[in-house]
Amino acid sequence: MDAKTARLTAKMDRRPGVSPQQLEAIFFPLNFTPPDDYVGFMTETNGSEGPIGTDRYLAIYSTEELLDRNAQTMTLEPGILFFGSDRGGDGYAFELDTPSNEVVAVEFADLDRTRARPMGKTFAEFLEMLSSEGAAEP
Hints:
By secondary structure, the chain is an alpha+beta fold.
């Protein structure tokens, strides 16, 4: 995990990590290569949950929760893969059908991708954007 990601997620819990091979077993059938910084994060902590920045909450799904949460949503909206949420109304997902695999925020209530909000091109950009502390950085 890089220093910026570690700083932005410092208040979140940590769990034992997963191997890159375990992640590949999940993502290969989807023909998806997750961002390197996401893989680095997951190899150090298989999911994480807690406050981020000064006033936000983030749950990054463990591999088990990722599979469970996406079992139904991928049939409704196959172009996105949820990797986390605010444990409220917003889910955070990778776009599987775009060349950049951008991170987007999608409301769970309607799963309408036309209303998805771009949240960054990498996992670190997503964390910065979500974090109020990230908004103040140059």
